Amino acid sequence: MLRKLSFFAFVIFLCQSCSSDFFEQVVNIDPPVYEKSLVVHATCSSLDTAFRVRVTRNFGLLDVVEDSAFFVKNAVVQLYKEGQLVATAPESTIRPDGWYEIPIASNIYEVGKTYELKVSHPDFPGIQATQTMPALVAVDSVRFRKNGGISPDGSELFAIDAFIQDKAGETNYYGVYVTELYINVIPIFDENNNFIGLDTIEDDEYKIYPETSDDPNAQVALDMLVLTDQFFDGQAYKISYKSYSYNSNDAARYKVYVRALTKDYYLYLLSEARKGEAEDLPLAEPVTVHTNLSNGIGIFGMYSEKVVLIK
User: Fold this and answer.
1) Does residue 250 carry a pLDDT above 70?
2) Residue 152 maps to a domain
3) Does residue 126 lie within any of the structural domains?
4) Where are the beta strands (DSSP E) in the chain?
5) 144-149: which pairs have CB atoms within 8 A and are 24 or more residues apart?
6) Per the domain annotation, does 194 fall within a domain?
7) Cβ atoms of 142 and 162 closer than 8 Å
8) What is the structure's pLDDT at 191?
9) Global pTM?
10) What CATH code is carried by the domain that includes residue 218?
């Protein structure tokens, strides 16, 4: 009993000995030193008819800046093909938030050709990166399954299966991206403003985000399902893409983009996804996002793609 009383007395003594400022200490933290650099994002598809690049900049961890301060103006943004300059993109007049873009010929992006991105600005070190456009995916077929199973939260899923033939003897990187098409109905009026009918001149296209996959090798990365051929080199393979059933209409239409990614773009997608997951876990180790830019932050990635319409 005496030992217990002595212990409690000791604890009380410690508590009373603490000043009122003991739990109110101010810790001064020096922010990490950073190098001023450009942040560039450019991803090019074999089907693109425009060259688009977003150019922003970095700031220190504790800097307080307006959003508009991130956007870099007056940069020189160039694309080279096999060492020859093929496009210089001016600042976009449509998307002013750091975008540079210019129309290009449909045959600019060719399988097996090497491309170089260069971005320069007098206030920053210039950046450079190269990519080689990968070969098109050999797609045997794509099918839709209305009953794709149940998600962990009990929601119904649909599935889209892409059947491909992998090329043997090399490491290939794949991505599947899906959109749903909705008819854009435009009302028509006569000269007296009387309604006379409807016109369906175009479709609106909306992303369908992947929820999961039957394939343990596939991973959800941002808005795509991605994987490598590590375990099916040279074989026929089924990539299964699952998502929530947004549209219960049996007449729903989908576009399925089956992509062959460059290694750099694949690694960037994975690291961006892991970074997003780590941000939700306060005790998780920080994730470094993959970049292939010299003297900069971001990505220059390429992918070839085939598009299949499912009606």
Assistant:
1) no
2) yes
3) yes
4) 38-45, 50-57, 76-81, 84-89, 99-103, 114-121, 124-132, 138-145, 157-165, 173-189, 195-208, 219-221, 224-228, 236-244, 253-261, 296-310
5) 144/254, 144/310, 146/245, 146/250, 148/242, 148/243, 149/242
6) yes
7) yes
8) 76
9) 0.83
10) 2.60.40
State both tokens at 57.
């900049």
pLDDT digits (tens, 9 = 90+) for 158-184: 999 999 999 999 999 999 999 998 877
Query: What's the half-sphere exposure (Cβ side, CA atoms, 13 Å) at 137?
Result: 33
**pLDDT at 42 (0 to 100):** 98
Place of tokens 């932050």: 297
**Whether 212 contacts 176, CB under 8 Å:** no
Residue ending a domain, among 77, 97, 132, is: 132
My answer on whether 164 and 227 are in the same domain is yes
**119 touches 55 (CB < 8 A):** yes
Tell me the per-residue pLDDT of 284-305, one tens digit each, with 9 for 90 and over.
778 899 999 999 899 999 999 9
- Measured in residues, the chain has a length of 311
Give 59 or 55, the one with higher predicted confidence: 55
